[in-house]
Amino acid sequence: MLGVWMQPKPENEDDLNAWYEQEHLGDRLVNPGFLRARRYISLTGEPKYFAMYDLTDLGALTSPEYSKARDDATPWTRRVVDNLTTLIRTEYELLHTEGTSPPGGAPYALIVQLETDEERDAELNRWYQEEHLAALVGLEGVYGARRYRATEGSPRYLMMYETANRDVIRSDEWQKRTGTPWTLRMRPHFKDRRDSIVQLIRSVEAQGK
Domain limits of the chain? Predict the structure, then answer.
């Protein structure tokens, strides 16, 4: 997965949104290995916009077609990028998935980024694998959860919990399922944690894939 966060200058926000709709998504999805793109607006936290591109594998980001598209950016692309105050681009590999994302994507999601010290990393992975993801996906209103590891950069892990509405993310039952003894033991060891509730703007599938 390729994750991209963008924060535009206020006066350039309309231009960014038009660029995504009219040019950028279509240009990216014609490249080999690009399966779908989903774009979100942050309801909490910054940057304001997040886009994720599901890939067959990370080789999609080194194909001649993709490299050419990045090197020969369109005038509109250059203008949009020049008017961003924040641009973060991170490549991820999928580690684990629970549940199922609905066709076209869920309307809301919680994105959590974090890491831990090396000596706690194995237990963090076991906690997610054996308890945490399944517990939340078992909650009514949660469609699925996916967990990724950055191939470089920090925070090392990204988790995405797709939900039917934003209320479930802060419900009493959610709090109960994130307050287990194992969770409470792990929580003090989280580092560089970043949470954001996002709302889906657009989901586009690559044609013929």
Answer: 2-205
Residue 157 token pair: 């892990």
CA gap 71, 58 in Å, rounded: 18
* DSSP-derived secondary structure for 100-168: -PPTT--SEEEEEEEE--HHHHHHHHHHIIIIIHHHHHTSTTEEEEEEEEESSSSSSEEEEEEESSSGG
CATH of 2-205, one of 3.30.1390.10, 3.20.20.70, 3.30.70.100, 1.10.8.110: 3.30.70.100
Question: Distance between CA 110 and CA 127 in Å, rounded?
Answer: 18
Structure tokens at 5: 């966060």
Predicted confidence (pLDDT) per residue in 50-98, tens digit: 999 999 999 999 999 999 999 999 999 999 999 999 999 999 999 999 9
Q: Which two tokens stand for residue 86?
A: 């924040």
Token look-up 């996906």 returns 137
User: 155: cis peptide before it, omega within 30°?
Assistant: yes
**What angle (nearest 5°) sits at the alpha carbon of residue 202, between those of residues 198 and 206?**
125
What does 27-94 look like in DSSP terms, one character per residue? HHHTSTTEEEEEEEEESSSSSSEEEEEEESSGGGGGSHHHHHHHHT--HHHHHHHHTEEEEEEEEEEE
Distance CA 3, CA 137 (A): 22
